[in-house]
Amino acid sequence: MRSLSDTLQRLQRFRTAPTMPTGSNRLEKLQNQTANPGDLLGWYRVPVSADSSFAIPLVVVLHGCTQTAAGYDAGSGWSKLADEYGFAVLFPEQTRQNNANLCFNWFSDGDIRRDGGEVGSIREMIGVMISDHGIDPTRVFITGLSAGGAMTNSMLAVYPEVFAGGAIIAGLPYGVASSIPQAFDRMRGHGLPPREQLQERLRSASSHAGRWPTISVWHGTADKTVDELNARAIIDQWKAIHEVADRPSRSDVVDGQEHHAWTSRTDADAIELYRIGGMGHGTPIDTSSGYGSQAPYMLDVGISSTEHIARTWGLTPSFERRANPEAAGERLSGAKSDRKITNNVQDVIESALRSAGLMK
Predict the structure, then answer these.
(1) Is 131 assigned a catalytic role?
(2) pTM over 0.90
(3) What backbone phi and psi angles, to 5 degrees, belong to 31?
């Protein structure tokens, strides 16, 4: 069940949130790329209210097959959430010249090796965002669906120093296919390498020796396109890097869905898994949250992966949203944000109660 503050904030959102456009007019085309080895397009959004004196976080979002950047944004609600909480979003986009079905080529060796192909293009786009739009290089995150989820895992493997965290939705482990036939086999859960090989492929993807990004895995239990065995394989691939136990440190229920977390030696959640009961292939959304809309592979199942992923990364506060729409775009990071959240909690609750007619 949702907390009381969550419920109150949702009620207030519907009464006060401004209407925002969806679709391609929300995103701007990324320019100034000096290298684009994977021949990808790039789209982005930086909040209008962003304060140029502060570096802001960035979320990189990778769409699935047959989707576009604008379509995935409209379905997931990422740019709307970014506007309200003051972070930027970057949407690399596949072209039909590279893949007729608009899938990121996660199964092509040339596209998933450091500094080459599609991963090289995405890394270049992130560099442009950092240099041109005031991005905090220590708070860069990435998420994606299906082929975009597999490419998300590839980016986390080959550029672990770039990302603070990643969220893989209905994706696959890194380095498990090098051809289209192999890709289809792995999607069906056939021929996945044993744990030791999965972990070795992750380690050999880069020479990284520092902190590793946190990993969030989302998968539907009724997914017939990418078998759920892939979610387990992704977690197995990352367990050794994060030095976590085989069994989850904590298991609970979040918005009615199964949730497991593996805690690192510092008592922080290093890996988490959401198993969405009865959900097929797609991104889990909750249209009642005010973020996203139902569409092919955007599945309204009563839990917003967008909101939960952003909250896990510290991009939004623990409660849903402040009552004052004028402040929606303010940055929520560091001690200054913590003080603001603490001071505004009572005001938020009272304002929502008044709006609902439950308090004078």
Answers:
(1) no
(2) no
(3) -115, -175
